[in-house]
Design goal:
404 residues; alpha/beta; Rossmann fold; 3 domains; 9 strands; 10% strand; globular
């Protein structure tokens, strides 16, 4: 039986995501297992997930996945490169995945692999430094694409202009670096473009569904989700735990920023490029997070990067604290096939499989640090629940995977 890995956020899960799982099985066989590596309560764009992680994982299993593993928090809220590296490492560590299936705007895995190889070439690094030092204030993505044109054709370099292609390239890079036997499979993305907030194309994007909920167009938003995700949303909403938006915690996040020193902000700046100074100054003036982010952003420092820095500050960790490697595998949900996969992983996984939270006490110092961060993250995430009485702390210590 083949096993397909899919790296996801499911924020929320929509019919395009279901289609990808169905296509994976159409290509690899109807008995193929689907293993998802999913972001938890916070997502890569530096935001709170709309619905908490186990509800989303359960909906994923009811929609076609067999096993959902959590992408640990530091990698889930990092750049595309680090996000992909952590997710691919998690998938590789299961010892079971044969393929990594993902959607892309091109659907051309050979082209994405060619770009991934070029990005690892020494000449590319030199050219990228030259582009960034040109004094034009060019953004990193634009500089990277220009630098790539010195090694590949403009058409090939243009693959880096679309978000799902970018992630696909990063997945290919991560697989190359690990020397993984997992084969990448790129499928042509269906429906609305990634990040589109309109309803012009079906299936809706996750961004469109979130935008509908912000506008209180709930029925339209639910129609854009998979049936299982819509049911999970309704259940979480009835319990006072959905929808989750960062604005609920805005004052707490602003308080955290205003209590930080310039040195604290400096520790969040991975590139040491001065963006921390802009964010520090903006936090002293802005009366809302939107004000702070708008004042700090430039072409060189896009909003997603700034949002991640603000989220790191809120969650209380810095990039230099992140472990070099993922220290354990943590299941969030599984069906009968997924439980069989977990049984196999006890024999073939290269990392401990953390079923019971208390078992983390027997793992490495890095594993314990990471789990403590997950506990804090879950407790701070819960403060964004619409009903504060539902925001009981310590759930990470009491809750295991959802078994269906």
């Amino acid at each position: 039986m083949a096993a397909a890995g899919i790296i996801v956020e499911y924020n929320p899960l929509h019919m395009g995501h279901v289609h990808l799982m169905e296509e994976a099985r159409r290509l690899l066989g109807e008995d193929a297992a689907v293993i998802c590596v999913m972001s938890g309560n916070f997502v890569q764009r530096g935001d709170f997930a709309l619905v908490e992680k186990r509800a989303r994982a359960s909906a994923a299993v009811k929609s076609g996945a067999d096993l959902v593993l959590e992408l640990p928090l530091p990698w889930a809220v990092s750049s595309a490169e680090a996000f992909a590296a952590g997710a691919v490492e998690t998938l590789e560590a299961t010892g079971l995945a044969d393929y990594l299936v993902f959607g892309s705007e091109s659907g051309d895995v050979s082209g994405l692999l060619q770009v991934a190889e070029a990005l690892e070439h020494p000449a590319f690094s030199q050219r990228l430094r030259q582009e960034l030092a040109s004094g034009t204030g060019i953004s990193f993505p634009a500089a990277r694409q220009r630098a790539l044109e010195s090694l590949l054709s403009p058409q090939d370099a243009a693959l880096l202009s679309q978000p799902n292609n970018i992630l696909g390239v990063e997945y290919c890079k991560a697989l190359r670096r690990l020397g993984s036997r997992i084969q990448p499979v790129a499928l042509l993305r269906r429906g609305a473009p990634h990040g589109a907030e309109t309803r012009e194309a079906a299936p809706y994007s996750a961004s469109a569904v979130r935008a509908l909920l912000r506008r209180r167009e709930e029925e339209s938003a639910l129609a854009g989700m998979s049936p299982a995700m819509a049911a999970a949303y309704r259940e979480e909403q009835a319990a006072g735990r959905a929808p989750v938006f960062w604005e609920t915690c805005e004052r707490g996040m602003l308080a955290r920023l205003r209590s930080m020193t310039a040195e604290d902000f400096g520790a969040l700046d991975q590139g040491r490029e001065g963006v921390s100074n802009r964010l520090y100054c903006a936090s002293r003036i802005g009366a809302s997070l939107t004000d702070v982010l708008e004042a700090a952003k430039t072409k060189r420092y896009p909003l997603a990067r700034l949002r991640r820095m603000v989220l790191w500050a809120y969650l209380g960790f810095t990039p230099d604290q992140i472990p070099e490697h993922v220290p354990y595998l943590r299941p969030l949900a599984a069906n009968a096939v997924g439980r069989d996969l977990l049984a196999q992983m006890r024999k073939c996984a290269s990392l401990p499989v953390l079923i019971k939270p208390a078992a983390v006490r027997c793992l490495s110092e890095e594993a314990r640090w990471l789990f403590d961060l997950e506990v804090r993250g879950a407790d701070l995430y819960a403060l964004a629940y619409p009903n504060l009485s539902a925001a009981q702390g310590g759930e990470e210590w009491r809750t295991g995977p959802v078994l269906l």
